[in-house]
Design brief:
heterodimer; A: about 270 residues; mainly alpha; about 0% strand; B: about 260 residues; MetI-like fold; 13 helices; globular
Amino acid sequence: MKRFAGWSLASPATLAVVIFLVLPVLATIITTFLTPAGPLAPYLGFFGSGFRRTVLWRTIQISLITTVIALFVGFITAYVVSRSPGWLKSILIIAAVFPLLTGVVVRSFAWMIILGKNGILNGALVGSGIIAEPMTMLYTQGAVIVAMVYLFVPLMVLTLVGVLESIPDDLIQASASLGAKPMATFTQVILPLAVPGLIVGAVLVFTGSFTAYATPQLLGGESQMVMGTLMYQQAMVTFDWVSASTIAAIMVVITIAIVLLMTRMAKRLNPMAI
Amino acid sequence: MTTKLHPALIAFTALVFVFLIGPLIIVVGAALSDTTYLTFPPQGLSLRWFENIFEISAFRRTIITSLQIAFLSTFIALLIGIPAAYALNRYRIQLPGWLSTLFVLPILVPELVLGFSLLKNVAVQFNAPIYLSLVVGHSLLVLPYVVRVISASLASFDFSIEEAAISLGSPPLKTFFTILLPNVRSGVIAAFILSFITSINDVSISIFLTGPGISTLPIQILAHMEQFFDPTVASVSVLLMALTVAVMAIVERTLGLTFLAK
């Protein structure tokens, strides 16, 4: 009876996810194995193309660099925020939430104004005489990475503040009073306790940047094509849906593999987590 | 007593916050400029670019579409997500473990893949109207937020109160509206706001499900940017930011913003 009540309440949402997400996405993946040219042809095509391998490698590279920078910046920031007095903490959290709630397009657009040929940064550098000619900063890998870091640091900070807040001050003070140098307290007390949060943050940032569309499109353009922009181009410009589906399948597999790998790692490192 | 922080850490954090807020201030400045090109600091102050938004019919149209889609998809997600969250908490033992994983899938599966799959296997295959596909896509996108936030507020709800009401003869639906819903009110508000903001800002799903006839605001901004790189985009961005500020003010009033860090 109870089982029936539970299922009937959960069924509308369950059906919605199964019908409109699981089945369509599975269908997209399955079609890549059913092409006339043979089951693995689209994948051989993808990995056989030097250009596409470059795109995949570039996407992985951008995502890894973004994740590492966001981890570093986010961790320090979250640590300071978590140890700030109450009123300041609220202000800082608001300051981190605000960009997070501002859309990807707006946030990427901001970096276009800053990094453009006639942008603010070039203006300031030329104006102050540091460089003679405006530099090309837009449509480079660096531009994509800066904007991605900008996108994901707030997410990392918010993920880590909660984790770091739950580390009691007493523990840190005990470590210090037992003679540990600040660095030792950091590496042997704070860092290990923050590992689950760091892993969650890394997964969010890596998968987010690996599958991003708007930011690489606006700040990287054609020359910095990544998996997301390539997939869009194949689907909506070239109308090569088999190729787009193949890219979709590769993105799903890599995303899910990363999530599984990292959650397993989190469990290994901290059996109490998750 | 809080731990003493090294000055270098404090300085670094201060820089990070300049990095986080600075670009948004630049957008506001650029929107207020009197010039026909994008510049900062603004050259002369003017609101003409804000007027321009409403003179461009494509922006007027997409603002309305975006608001409609956000309301509709949030409403649908609440309608199916609240019972699901309730079932997951109340009947946890009776339901299989994978069910809660299923509701995380819309976050786990890349949005672009979901958008493309909906286009290919629903919109085109079944000749479904694009507007409807857009609503479906956005409802799925925001469903995980609804389920998670409502679950979080149900976690502290004592179900014996509800059982008491039922055993005293209150009909289930009345119990839901008079006992359960008031107790998770803050969760519903938070879920509504998160969903609404997520939907309004979405690019990755919408990019596949919008066309010449129907478009959403972020997609229209992208299209406009390809042709003109003028302060109109900055002023639309400021409108979106103003919406965010309004929403944050509501959250602050009802829940307190630190709630979002949990």
